[in-house]
Amino acid sequence: MKSSGNTILVTGGSAGIGFELAKILSENDNEVIITGRNHERLKKASSQIKHASHIQSDVSSPEDVNALVNMLYRDFPTLNVVINNAGHAMLYDIFEEGINAYDKTKDEMETNFFSVIRLNEKLFPQLKLQQEAAIVNVSSVVAFLPGSLVGYSASKAALHSYSQSLRMRLEDSTSIKVFELMPPLVNTEFSQVIGGSKGISPMQVAEEFYDAWQKDEFEIHVGQTADLYKLYLASPSEALKRVNSMRKQLRLENE
């Protein structure tokens, strides 16, 4: 994938991984549009990014997505990269009485999975017009090694499967490349409830993504995800046991 001269949409771009992705891409001569639900956070983030525009938009809202897509078609006709980074996670015990795991999981699936399909589908016609285009779906190590974030893990597993299917469907008939970014635990505001302070920095995620993206590495295993994936291929049960032992230790340290 070309590393500069792109017009790139980053959902959930006001903080964390999305912000760092937008920042490193803008620093390498790409035009970036970031979205998010909070206008003030978006405005502040946009002011810290070299070539950036911001649009307040909630990916889980059909009305917001329709308005966003109309604006992109009108104001950014050269849009050729979509980074689906916006995410939602909740920590809960599915067996706890009254927790309403169904509704919580439904919310996570809507933001992390269904909204990605909706936005991609609406932007396919514009992406197909470009000489070179890409979709980047941000999933997670939990796509193949699930943990205590039950709904989140399931949504990322679904996103991983969708990314593979989409890649196979598009590679022979369009110029659209499909990438999947799979970080491990990352130190963001989003992840503090599960020990995120012990994770890698969002900047490291962005730097490793940018390097792999230029090389057309379609499944990008960032940081510890790379080693865990190798172990998973050798022994899925051992990999699951090891990663959940690590997560248990993190919980104990945070208590």
3D architecture notes:
This protein has a single domain (7-225), classed as Rossmann fold (3-Layer(aba) Sandwich), CATH 3.40.50. The chain is built from eight helices and seven strands. It has helices at residues 16-27, 39-47, 62-75, 101-128, 150-171, 202-214, 224-234, 236-254, and strands spanning 7-10, 31-36, 52-56, 81-84, 133-138, 176-182, 219-221. Strands 3-2-1-4-5-6-7 form a seven-stranded parallel β-sheet, with helices on both faces. The longest helix is centred in the middle third of the chain and has 28 residues, at 101-128. The termini are far apart. The relative contact order is 0.13. The mean pLDDT is 92.
Mean pLDDT: 92
Gap between N and C termini: 44 Å
Helix content: 40-55%
How many structural domains are formed by the residues?
1
Q: Specify the number of helices.
A: 8
CATH architecture: 3-Layer(aba) Sandwich
DSSP E strands, number? 7
Q: What's the layout of helices and strands?
A:
Elements: E1 7-10, H1 16-27, E2 31-36, H2 39-47, E3 52-56, H3 62-75, E4 81-84, H4 101-128, E5 133-138, H5 150-171, E6 176-182, H6 202-214, E7 219-221, H7 224-234, H8 236-254
Parallel strand pairs: 1-2, 1-4, 2-3, 4-5, 5-6, 6-7
Quick recap:
It contains 8 helices and 7 strands, in the order βαβαβαβαβαβαβαα. By secondary structure, it is of the alpha/beta class.
What are the main properties of this structure?
255 residues, alpha/beta, Rossmann fold, 8 helices, 50% helix
